[in-house]
Specification:
By secondary structure, the chain is an alpha/beta fold. The protein is built from eleven helices and eleven strands. About 40% of the residues lie in helices and about 15% in strands. Strands 3-4-5-6-7-8-9-10 form an eight-stranded parallel beta sheet. It has a three-stranded antiparallel beta sheet with strand order 1-2-11. The longest helix has 16 residues, at about 275-290.
Length: about 300
């Protein structure tokens, strides 16, 4: 099925631009204009927002721990102005300390870092719901996730559904490392939630073409968005996502510092899609989901 879908997509495309993963592909801040009531067209800056970033102890993944200044420096080089960050500790073992550390970063870098609260398991019950409430109401977090799910605790089980419902009550998006089927199942159970399917649905690593199933299943559920960072960058990923879902449901993310932000951004800037679609993907879609005001020059 996945191979057939890929062939059908390629057939409707005229020519796909081959990926050019070099730093020259990486553009800086995008610019757009709007018309005011008096006919004046003030410049509006479209901020590039990374919807999927981490910090903290990376030894759990067999990697060195990258200092936050180095993470921000790499974002600067890639032309990324804001990062939606969650703590590795909160994701994997300590939701209280990890989310507190995320809060401290948002205070230290208020113009760069957007805090996402998370928790390592769906089984905390009321304690997990209380932590999400504290993170949003007291810490000012603007999202939930990355939620790390798996085969034995998929996103559509009751424990995760309760967390997603809590996020929906606070009107903050949920970034979920989950299978496409579980993402769609959860989104249908909580239609008022905005669910970002991390890694185009390929995060569980069951097959190199999982991203195709992710895009295909997301078509059935308008509150599912696909987030673009992937370890395997297949030909035509971004083009297919835009063609099948529309650019409004594609969200830029990098998984920095686990993945290279330059490469992940180049997937968008070098894609054979309109410039207006790139602007939506790189920041405008996420700005809208986060409820951030446009930035005027």
């Amino acid at each position: 099925m996945a191979s057939m879908l890929a062939n059908e997509f390629i057939a409707v495309q005229s020519v796909l631009t081959r990926r050019r993963f070099v730093s020259a592909c990486v553009s800086g801040t995008l610019a757009a204009t709007t018309v005011s009531a008096d006919g004046v067209r003030p410049a509006v800056r479209s901020v590039v927002i990374d919807a999927h970033a981490h910090f903290g102890y990376l030894g759990i993944y067999g990697q060195r721990t990258v200092p936050i200044d180095e993470i921000l420096g790499a974002a600067d080089e890639a032309g990324i102005q804001k990062l939606c960050i969650s703590s590795v500790e909160a994701t994997d073992f300590d939701m209280y300390g990890g989310n507190r550390a995320t809060y401290e970063l948002t205070k230290r870098y208020p113009d760069r870092i957007i805090g996402f609260a998370t928790l390592p398991s769906s089984h905390f019950g009321q304690k997990g719901l209380d932590e999400i409430r504290r993170a949003v109401e007291q810490y000012g977090m603007r999202g939930v996730g990355e939620l790390e799910t798996g085969v034995y605790d998929p996103l559509d089980i009751p424990g995760w559904i309760a967390i997603i419902e809590q996020a929906a009550r606070f009107r903050v998006p949920v970034l979920a490392h989950a299978s496409p089927a579980a993402c769609v199942g959860a989104a249908k159970r909580v239609p008022e939630a905005s669910i970002l399917m991390a890694h185009l649905g390929s995060g569980l690593g069951r097959g190199i073409d999982d991203w195709i199933q992710g895009i295909e299943l997301a078509k059935s559920c308008s509150n599912v968005y696909v987030e673009t960072c992937t370890s395997i960058t297949a030909y035509g990923q971004i083009e297919m996502a835009v063609h099948e879902l529309g650019p409004e449901r594609v969200i830029f993310g990098t998984d920095t510092p686990l993945l290279d932000p330059d490469v992940q951004k180049a997937k968008i800037t070098s894609a054979d899609i309109p410039e207006s679609a790139k602007e939506l993907i790189l920041g405008e879609n996420m700005r809208r989901l986060l409820g951030l005001a446009p930035v005027k020059q």
